[in-house]
């Protein structure tokens, strides 16, 4: 579940950091809340444990392993976006973002 949180957060933008973009998409915020609630209810309501044939998970086993993957994914993506933003220039004439050094146009005569 935490890795799905990270995937949703890193897919919000291609270039901007999550701190620059913010959490303004209320549908995505609701989806995160709903997913977390659903997993919590399915894991920790005793009646559903007997119906589904599962058992309660100790909270450290539920959160600690996935939080480490969450932090690795977010750190990797924020680092990638920082390097990406260093090579961006905005062209006022065309209104587009140009990535310097990524694609070169070689014309051979």
What do these coordinates show?
There is one protein chain. By secondary structure, the chain is mainly alpha-helical. The protein has one domain. It contains 5 helices and 2 strands; from the N terminus they run H-H-H-H-H-E-E. Strands 1-2 form a two-stranded antiparallel sheet. Helix 1 packs parallel to helix 5. It is elongated, with a radius of gyration of 21 Å. The mean pLDDT is 81.
Helix amount, in percent?
A: 55-70%
Can you tell me the number of structural domains? 1
Largest sheet: 2 strands, antiparallel
The helix/strand order is: HHHHHEE
Shape descriptor reads elongated
In total, how many beta strands?
Answer: 2
Distance between the termini: 55 Å
Mean of the pLDDT scores? 81
Strand order of the largest sheet: 1-2
Q: How many helices?
A: 5
Radius of gyration: 21 Å
Q: Tell me the strand percentage band.
A: 5-15%
| Subunit organisation of the chains | single chain
- Structural class estimated from helices and strands: mainly alpha
Low-confidence blocks of residues: none
Write the layout of secondary structure elements.
Blueprint lengths: L1 H9 L7 H4 L4 H19 L1 H7 L6 H28 L1 E4 L4 E4 L10
Antiparallel strand pairs: 1-2
In short:
By secondary structure, the chain is mostly helical. It has helices at 2-10, 18-21, 26-44, 46-52, 59-86, and strands spanning 88-91, 96-99. The protein is 61% helix and 7% strand.
Characteristic key phrases:
elongated; single chain; 7% strand; two-stranded antiparallel sheet; mainly alpha; 61% helix
């Amino acid at each position: 579940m935490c890795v799905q949180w990270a995937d949703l957060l890193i897919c919000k933008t291609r270039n901007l950091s999550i701190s620059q973009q913010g959490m303004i998409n209320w549908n995505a915020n609701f989806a995160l809340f709903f997913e977390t609630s659903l997993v919590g209810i399915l894991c920790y309501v005793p009646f559903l444990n007997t119906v589904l044939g599962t058992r309660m998970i100790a909270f450290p086993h539920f959160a600690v392993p996935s939080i480490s993957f969450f932090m690795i994914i977010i750190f990797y993506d924020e680092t990638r976006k920082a390097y990406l933003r260093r090579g961006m220039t905005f062209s006022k004439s065309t209104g587009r973002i140009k990535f310097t050094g990524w694609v070169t146009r070689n014309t051979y005569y």
